[in-house]
Amino acid sequence: MISRSPGNSLEPMGEETVIVGHSFRSSMALLRLAASAPEPLPRGMVLLATPFWGQEDWQAKYALPADFTLPPGLPVFLHHCRDDGTVPFEHLDSYERLLPDAVIRRHETGGHQFEERMDAVAGDMAALGS
User: Fold this and answer.
1) What is the radius of gyration, based on Cα positions, of the chain?
2) What is the C-alpha to C-alpha distance for residues 70 and 121, in angstroms, rounded to an integer?
3) Within a 10 A sphere around the Cβ of 52, how many other Cβ atoms?
4) SUPFAM superfamilies under this entry (predicted)?
5) What is the pLDDT along the chain (130 residues), one digit of tens a residue?
6) Residue 45 forms beta bridges with which residues?
7) Eight-class DSSP state of 10
8) CA dihedral sign, ordered 83, 87, 90, 91
9) Backbone angles phi, psi at 127, to 5 degrees
């Protein structure tokens, strides 16, 4: 099951939930996770073009705590395209440093909307569903 709940809520959800977020929503899913990890944890997260707030001209009010870590056992996949004209590709490097347990997927092309890259995203979603 893929959950898309209104607002920034991660509740209610069950252990079969896969959180999929793009851009601002993906950063809000991480921020909500930092505030309080839900029980049970979702099956995993697949996040696309996630802004790293507090960097460069990106507002710090949405920044994750510096000591944020992923809950043990929560698989997280972070995808970003090098030619993204909205969220700088370097934001992915910041997430790689902050979240060393996350799986990082770098795509050369696809832009902010992941044109012709959704097969890779779908593959990660499918892996979480099995």
Assistant:
1) 14
2) 20
3) 22
4) alpha/beta-Hydrolases
5) 344 444 445 555 677 899 999 999 999 999 999 998 888 899 999 999 999 998 777 888 899 998 999 999 999 999 999 999 999 999 999 999 999 999 999 999 999 999 999 999 999 999 998 6
6) 19, 76
7) -
8) negative
9) -60, -35
